[in-house]
């Protein structure tokens, strides 16, 4: 490789490796954690992968690690405009706020 793998390359490998390729997923997550140990995504990726494989002790271990490092996961939001009003939704599709739009 002409240059050292960066955050984007490790992220891409991590996502593709979660389809059951545990060794590569763990390796990529490890590199992402080295680059930014407060970034929650590699921990979630590993936890979800372990859960899909019924590796519950590993899931608990990752969750304990995240809690011990006080790493927070923030909810993702979607915004949609309906009739000059903006509605904010979480991934659970609950409306959290309606904000009128001035035009």
From TrEMBL:
One annotated GO molecular function: RNA binding
Single biological process term from Gene Ontology: RNA modification
Pfam families, A to Z: E_motif (PF20431)
Designated name of the protein: Pentatricopeptide repeat-containing protein
């Amino acid at each position: 490789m002409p240059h050292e793998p960066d955050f984007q390359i490790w992220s891409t490998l991590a996502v593709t490796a979660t389809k059951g390729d545990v060794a590569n997923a763990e390796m990529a997550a490890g590199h992402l954690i080295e680059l930014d140990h407060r970034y929650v995504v590699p921990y979630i990726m590993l936890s979800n992968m372990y859960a899909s494989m019924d590796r519950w002790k590993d899931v608990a271990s990752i969750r304990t690690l995240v809690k011990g490092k006080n790493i927070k996961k923030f909810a993702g939001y979607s915004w949609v405009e309906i009739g000059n009003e903006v509605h904010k939704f979480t991934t659970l599709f609950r409306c959290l706020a309606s904000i009128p739009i001035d035009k």
